[in-house]
Protein 1
Amino acid sequence: MRHHSEWQFYSLSRYRNVLMGLQILLIIIFHFAEDCRLYDVRYDGLVKFYDIFIHSSGVDLFLLLSGMGLYFSMKKGPDLKSFYKKRFQRLLIPYVIVAAPAWLWLDVIVQGQGPLAFFKDFFFISFFFEEKRWFWYIFMMALCYLIFPYIFSAAERAGDRISRHMRLALLCMMSTLALVMLELYHHDLYINISIALSRLPAFFAGVFVGKAVWEKHKVPLWKIFLLLILVVLAAGPLGLADKSIIGVYIAALLNFSLCLVFVWVLDILSEKRGFPLLAWRGINSILGWFGKYTLELYLVHVAVRRVMKTLGFYTYRLSCEGIMVIISVALAVLLSKLTSAIVGRQKKRLKNK
């Protein structure tokens, strides 16, 4: 029996797949709310509330949970070569499978811009100079993989709680300062890439959270609820996630604090009998299933959504949204199997050499 007066960081690891599954669903819902805002259809009530206060914060939680997972991977096997090989295979193979035909279709067939446009879009050159963001999250994850050893080293050298907090705060302040300077002195570039760079603090936090999980840290439960209350109070005047850098941070903190409470509830349900235990199993099964395919779901979802909108099947319509989700889920499972098959063949080739 756990002491529920304390919140255990280990719960984040225990329910990592569940939280990942929850966040991909929140991203899909956000894109629906975004379409309602862009086309000014049913943009009121819960849809507007969701768009303002949750917004795209699921991306921040993806990065936080990814940072936590990377920390565990590095602790278990610190060989950088195999670390990078495994991670970039997992990231780039599905990206190539989805993004190559998607960009070819859009750039060459639909817009008639030719192979040069495809090259710039596929390799994220246009992300910096033309504000093309279709698969920007893949670029962001690649960047996080590259800088991870330095963030890991900073976390490992933190000997106590104060040192951890100070190091994390310094990293976040440096990232925020760089973003502010970019906005002041190169506004066009800021507009293009801020969607990615404003998420770096979430990744930094994830690495440090990974350290806390690994070392089985605990905090008094009242601190979790105090964090939630403070973030809710701040979200009122500052919570427009697309308005400013601080708005992105507030939305991410709100999502994160709600996740902390959510896993606390899951811990309690797991110790009950009857309906609470059945609910716990159901939540774990459903969200955990989605959590296994988050990368694939992201890639396929954003691709199918863009294709449908380009063809006039606007996903602010509930019927189109439902079709898009069904297609995305089916293709994500196929993409996962195809990626695993390609990785498996590569491993066999290396063994036979």
Protein 2
Amino acid sequence: MGIFDVAFLVSAVTIAAPILLAATGELVSEKAGVINVGLEGVMLTGAFTAYWTMIGTGNMFVSFLGGLAGGLLFGVLMSVLAIEAKVDQIVSGIAIGLLGYGITTFLNSDVIKDPKTLAPMQRHGIPGLEHLPVVGQALFNQDVFIYVTAVVVVLVALAMTRTTWGVNLKAVGETPIAADAAGVSVRGLRWAATVFSAGCAGLAGAYLSIGDVGVFRESMTGGRGYLALAAVLFSRWRLGGVGLAVTIFAVTDATQLRLQALGEIPREVWIAAALIVVVVLALRARGRAGIRLTSGDAFIGVVLIALVVTVIAAPKTTLPVPLWLAMPYVLALVALATAGNTRNQAPTALAIPYLRSET
């Protein structure tokens, strides 16, 4: 398997879990018509409040509740600004992101005088599944947070597709006037979705500080909130697409961590990159009537040809460490740039305040 061994898969799953949880919450919020571009700041706040609580109590469960509380607090703030005060959601989100960064930076230097390094969460194997070849250790011998994340994603999928709540949620994001006329509380559902999204981001941040890294550092989320936002956009507001986008980002991040220690890029990395490009092309082509090539398709095609040539030539090359660190975010930019016109798939009322008095 080369660098793509069991340890690599475990690393990818660990990286993916907090991004997936934050992206799932954001998907619910955007389905209701509220976008929170300050997700990074919410995750930072959850990471700090969880770490602060852990130092004070030493209890992992209570500390995750602290991270959840930090996220919910910012969710309430976002709801007040975007839903009640009708402030532009992009402006509100930017303000929340900056507020989260500023508050956590200040409190980390002013409140935490004696930082401690915590042990990561313990892993628990699922009997009968943890010994499966390859995927056993990666998927079925993980910590509680990863299991809970999987359960949350499944429950959200069921709720959005099989319940009246899910139908109402989509209606609020698509045609809030019609939903209101049918007796659905647009304001209440948007509040619930926004607070839920922030709570998921707070828990995701908590996992980074007390479940994985074991310490809080300034800007420790490292852009994961933006990756969650990118995953929702790239998925065209579908939960399955969110999972695929997060998987690609996590695999890229895990790959760059492994490649930093190698002298050259192995052939299997170029092959994997080519396969990812093929998947992106297939997803873009799905659902089209006939063959219609766009500029985005042409760009991806050129990238694919270049990767195929590289696979054949297998050049002995490497890249500087800073460039490796930027790889997941470069990939996110490429994904967004080649996603085409996604506005047609976005909820119609996304980022548009609902003014009941105007109906």
